[in-house]
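Board notes, transcribed. Complex of a protein with tetrahydrodeoxyuridine.
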Amino acid sequence: MNEERIEFLIEQANEARAHAYAPYSNFRVGAALLTKSNKLYLGCNIENASYTPTNCAERTAIFKAVYDGEREFEAIAIVSDGRNATAPCGVCRQVLAEFCEPSMPVICANMEGNYKILTLEELIPMAFTKEDMEKI
Ligand code: THU
């Protein structure tokens, strides 16, 4: 993944952030998910008065893509308006692990353009997957 591509994904995630519905936390997050077929899916966090049903930006993006029949992913970028580069929450890591390879880069950025890249496996080692449900 070259620098230009990384910056493009961060830029797109930052635009997705503008769609956030976050009246409770006031913490706005955007995600840009690139498929292996070179399509881009954007997501934002969508909160709820009952808090628990809140959907993170990463899951919004991946659910949109999966609905469209996409199953293979190249990279995801996440941008928040927080001081630090935002990494996906535990639930989103598990959802990403359902569809993405352990080596997939996860680009965690903030609005100032600071970012770090980790692989999905670094974020969720030993994720629970369908192989773990195989019986003896
Ligand atoms: N959030 C995301 O959308 N993605 C993350 O990676 C971290 C957390 C959202 C959920 C909630 O709307 C707000 O940020 C505060 O937790």
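The longest helix spans residues 3-17. The domain at 3-133 is CATH 3.40.140.10 (Cytidine Deaminase; domain 2).
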